[in-house]
Each structure stands twice: as C-alpha cells, then as structure tokens.
Amino acid sequence: MTDGWDWRRPGDAPTPAAPPRAADPSAAAPGTAGGRAASPWWSDALADPWRDPAAPAAVVVPAPASGGTAPEPVSDPDAPGRPGLRQVLLISLVSALLAGALGGALGYALAVRGGVAAGTVLGADPAQAPALAQRKPESLAGVAERVLPSVVTVRVSSVGGTSEGSGFVVSADGHVITNDHVVAGGTGKASVVFNDGTSAPAKVVGQDPESDIAVIKVERTGLRPVEFGDSDALAVGDPVLAIGSPLSLANTVTAGIVSALDRTMQAGEPGGPVRYYAAIQTDAAVNHGNSGGPLVDAAGRVVGVNSTIKSLVSDGQEAGNIGLAFAIPINQAKRVTQDIIGTGKARRTVIGAQVGGPGAAVAGGGVRLASVEPSGPAAGAGLQAGDVILRLNGRPMAEPSDLIALVRKFAPGSVVTVEYRRGSSRQNASVTLAADAK
Description:
Elements: H1 85-114, H2 140-147, E1 151-158, E2 161-169, E3 175-178, H3 180-183, E4 186-193, E5 199-208, E6 213-218, E7 227-228, E8 239-244, E9 252-267, E10 275-282, E11 294-297, E12 301-309, E13 325-329, H4 330-343, E14 349-350, E15 353-355, E16 367-372, H5 377-380, E17 388-392, E18 395-396, H6 400-409, E19 415-422, E20 425-432, E21 434-435
Parallel strand pairs: 7-12
Antiparallel strand pairs: 1-2, 1-4, 2-3, 3-6, 4-5, 5-6, 8-9, 8-11, 9-10, 10-13, 11-12, 12-13, 14-21, 15-16, 16-17, 17-18, 17-19, 19-20
C-alpha cells in the first residue's frame, strides 16, 4: 500500500508491480539511460497511475546533445511584438496631423482674441540690437551736424512782399552774413529762423550791392559762429556742401565738388547795380533760397557764400538748378563783412584803369585798356592806355568783366602780376592794387 508517490530514481527499471504502459511515442535514442533522455528530474508523468487524465501534462524537453540539432524556437503568441514599419509611419502621420490641427486652432484663437498684429513683433529687439556707429566728425554727416546750428533762414519784409534766403552766423555777438539781393528793397528789419525752429528779430547792419554781400545783426546770445576756411587754397575737385533753405526747405544739405575756380560772374537786376566777382563754381544742388548760405569744405569750414545759379529758362521765368551754382569766395566776403561792421560800407579794390567799349575784347585773347588813371596803380606800374592785358596772376583775360571781377577778388594793397602786350611785344608788371576813393 503506497500513497502513490513513485520514489524511483530516474533511469531505474519499473517495479514488477507496475502495470504495463503504452509504448512511449518517442523512440529511445542512443546514449540514453533506460530508453529515455537523461534528466535531473523525473518526467514519467504519463505512467503515473494516480494522474488525472483530464489534467495537462508538463513536458520537459531534454537539452540537445553536443553537436545535435537545436530545437525549433518557440514564440509566445500573447507576448507584445515589435511594431512594423507601416505602424511607425501611420503613428507619425497621425501625430503630425493632430499637432498641426492643434497649432492652427490655437493661432486662430489668439488672433481673434487679441488681433492679428497684437502678438506680432517686426524687426529685432532694440535692446538686443547693436548700437549704431557714431558718425565720424570728418564725414559729410559729421560736418553737416557741426555746421547746421550756425546756418539760419533770413526773412525780410518789403513793399512787394517777403524775401527769403539763407545766412550764417559769423560772430558770437550775432552778426550774420547773407546776400545783398536777399535784403535789398527791405525796410532794414529782418528775422532769422535757426535750425532748431526758433526765431529772433534782426536788423540790417550794412550791405555792398557790387559784391552782393550784406550783414545783419541778431539780438540773441549763445550763438555758435562758423569756422572760416581759405578760398584761395581750394582746388578743382575738392568736395563741398551747400547748406541753406532752398525753396523754403530749411536745413537742407546738398553735396558736390568744386567744378571750377575764378569763374567770372556779372549779375544784377535790371536798373540795379552790376555785381562782379570771380566765383567758386560747384555742382552741388543750389536753388532759390540758398542765396546767402554757406559753401562748406570737407573740414566744415566756410569757403564761399552761395549766390547765383545758372538756368536754361528765359528771362522772367523761375530758374532751377541744372548742376551749376556759384559762390562768392569767403576771403572776399570776409573782408567785405569786416569793412561793413567796422565802417558801415565796403571798400572796392581797383587797378586804376578803365576797360570796356568797342574793341575791349581782343581777338586771340586779352582785354584792351581804354584809359589809365594818371596816379592809379596801373600807371604806377608803367601800364598805358591801349595796352592789352593778357593775364592777371596767371589767369587769362577774355572779357572786360574778367579783369574787373578778378581785381575785386583781392584786398586793397595786394600785389598782382600783370602780363600784357604793347604792340608786338609781351611784358610783365607788378601792380599794387588800391581801394576806390568812393
């Protein structure tokens, strides 16, 4: 009598009392004990007389012998498998569609709630943007910034209306240079407007119609006068700025170069005085209203007073800039200004000879002297009536106005070299110019 537990060790022969069992479907393999694979555990569960036929049997698969065939791998159908490529692509596509839909919905909600432009920032953050480079003092912008506080708009009332031009401060006590034709015909009273928009009354100190220079005085303190340059040191091609109020557009700056020097100008209104000067020609844009404003070199120094423009329009029509403008040399304008401030009038430089009339302009170049004052500078240098002036300080003479304008460019007492022809001979003479006795 037993409790049904078979205490046999694996490999032992069955006891005689055990009933015969059906043949083991698995054939005994060579090298096994008792016709079955050696196992550390007993696996003869099918021969157990007490086994429930309905209970599943646990089968222990023996390990293959060395060099034998490996068993076929067994996979659990219930275990989670690795996703396929189609599944990955499908999941990514669905995720992208969901994210786009969500982003669009949020963007629409924000736009409707706060306005489309409310959340939009254009441009860089000023706090993070690099600071703008400061303009160098020698740059055109630096020069303009330095000179503009000294430039003013000049307004003069007259019977015919209001004349407007430009001017610039030349002394700390309020003296301003402008053109004579800006203040001509006025009542002697004027007003100036500074570049900051403030204005102040002014009065005319004096004027010289023949040089087209006038001086007015502003009753205001804290003014900044301009720095003067040397107009005799200019060369063709030097850069210049014209500053003023062309066409009533205050604080206008235009740039150009010196395109010619000692360009003879003979100007004046019908019935008025004739103005002569050897001008600085520039291609800086100059229009009506620039008159009296400064012509400035690249160092910010005033080298001329803008005065005249050339135009292709007929007489009586409004002239406009065509790339040619003319300025009075500052050396001449400064000298005239000092005379006006000191004495109320300007001295006129003369050579002591008369030109003009028939035969004044000689074929082949030169200007013939119609007469010579007995005690004048020309007579003192040995010049005579009938002599033909060919050059003055190397500048060729072609018209009578050339000699007049160039002589007035120099200050009284200046010594100039005159090349002339008498008959068929050429000669040179040094002439000391003088001031007119008027």
